[in-house]
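We were asked to recover a plausible sequence for a given structure. The inputs and outputs are reproduced exactly as logged, with field labels preserved.

PROBLEM: sequence recovery
POSITIONS: 85
GIVEN STRUCTURE:
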């Protein structure tokens, strides 16, 4: 059976990349944040995700970018309890 896309999980890779990019850009000083592009990234991410899943992807991305931070603290920051929506 042929793979879907290039890797077989292209959709997941792109969704995770968008979430990670958005969280990383949010860490820049406000004057250096490309706000228009960030809004576009958020729109694309939202269009790719199931309803309500955007915050989960963003929380997971922040956990990856800040592995020394308590994951539950990050999930709570995004309005998620116990890592669940």
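RECOVERED SEQUENCE:
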């Amino acid at each position: 059976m042929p793979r879907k896309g290039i890797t077989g999980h292209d959709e997941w890779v792109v969704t995770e990349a968008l979430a990670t990019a958005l969280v990383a850009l949010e860490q820049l000083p406000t004057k250096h944040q490309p706000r228009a592009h960030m809004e576009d990234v958020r729109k694309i991410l939202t269009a790719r995700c199931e309803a309500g899943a955007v915050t989960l992807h963003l929380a997971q991305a922040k956990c990856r970018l800040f592995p020394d931070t308590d994951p539950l603290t990050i999930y709570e920051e995004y309005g998620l309890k116990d890592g669940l929506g």
